[in-house]
Each structure stands twice: as C-alpha cells, then as structure tokens.
Design a protein that fits this description.
Strand order of the largest sheet: 1-5-4-3-2
Low-confidence stretches: none
Order of helices and strands: EEEEEH
Number of domains: 1
Number of helices: 1
Radius of gyration: 13 Å
C-alpha cells in the first residue's frame, strides 16, 4: 500500500467512494468514510469535501468501532 499522509486533501484520494451515515442530519453534521486502494480507511468532514482527510488502518477503525459499540466513548456526548 502506498503511504498516504494524514491531512491530505480529500479530493486527491484517487478512487475514494465516500459514504455517509444514514444517521447524518441535514444540518451539516456529517462524517464520511471511504475505503482506499490497499485497504486504508479515509475519514473527512462532509461540509468540506476538498478539505483534509484523516487516514487510518483497517485495524485502527475496527478498534474504534468496537469501542463505540462497547460504549467507551459515550462520555463525549453526555
């Protein structure tokens, strides 16, 4: 997999098919994700589609989503 730096402009990620959560509201509070060539996962703010993207490994995303499911991050929205 080619090295992709965090903060790269999201519109420069070739082949990225961005997906938004069905829970996203119409007021711009949306985060989008895309699987990149090689398996890395990109995350961007949908309000700024050409803005910076954060790049994570599949393992990092799996660990984060597991923590979300387990309630580890509920403190952030209470």
């Amino acid at each position: 997999m080619a090295q992709v730096d965090n903060g790269v402009s999201a519109d420069t990620l070739d082949g990225a098919q961005w997906r938004k959560s069905g829970r996203s509201g119409g007021n711009g509070n949306c985060v989008e994700m895309a699987v990149l060539t090689g398996g890395a996962i990109a995350v961007r703010n949908s309000r700024f589609p050409t803005g910076p993207a954060l790049i994570y490994t599949r393992e990092e995303i799996e660990a984060f989503l597991g923590g979300v499911r387990d309630g580890d991050f509920d403190f952030a929205v209470k």
